[in-house]
Amino acid sequence: MASGPRSGSLNPAAKEFVPQVASRPSASGVSEDCAVPRANGTPGRRRSASRRSHVFLTNHAALDQLLVSPDASSISAVTFGAGFHVRDEHLRKLADAIGPQLRSLRLGDTDTGDGVFVTDAAVKHVAAKCHGLEELALEACVGVTDAGFSAVLNSLSSLRELHLTGHDRSSGMLTCKGLSPLIHGGALPNLRQLYITDQIAVKFETVQRLIRRRKDLQVLAGETDGDSAAWGAVLQQMGRSYGDGLYGNMCCGGRMR
Predict the structure, then answer these.
(1) Adjacent-strand bridge partners of 145
(2) Rounded CA gap, 217 and 193, in Å?
(3) Per residue in 166-196, pLDDT tens?
(4) Is 55 helix (H, G, I), strand (E, B) or coil?
(5) Is it true that domain 76-254 has CATH number 3.80.10.10?
(6) Binning pLDDT at 50, 70 and 90, where does residue 237 land?
(7) Where are the domains of the chain?
């Protein structure tokens, strides 16, 4: 359950962004704020990482105030809202201030295109400062290339979930070469979910090889659809449905198509 704001920790414009302590499923499906039951059904010991302080940011003032707040030392998960318009400098500030303690970082939005101004430089900085990340979502980050992706692969060995996507109006810049360390080099051994949609240079055959090589990895790739009524009419005329351009082993009931 979320806790309420602590009085006096943030200014009124940013008060909704005081850390929210939330129970949420971990990648293994076990709630982070629950006791693990013994075989006889009685409560067991609590997991060590039982509570996560999660902050949602929707404006620049909230970020600036957060970074000087006493609560900053308790934050391990940050989500930039869809209207934040994230730039490299925002990620550098965050990584410099609380990077080592971050376990989850999410930004960008494929509907609004927020994330398009993020570049390799910021991703490399995050990779260098935030070694404990387990979840990294870079949505609609069409300016991030193989170089930024490589920095993530080389530095964030604890990652279990990774998103690097474009959006339905503009492709990202990831290529098949960028995926090679995952296929042949054993990069990110703990990775369980990979989202690489709207990356036009990533080919179906390469994703197939990745899935065959990494049996414990779920991948979603391919092209997403616009949400406009006009695009819906186009799909109908073509005899297609929303989601037909997606493939991998994370859709179609686990079947790769």
Answers:
(1) 173
(2) 6
(3) 998 899 999 999 999 999 989 999 999 999 9
(4) strand
(5) yes
(6) low
(7) 76-254
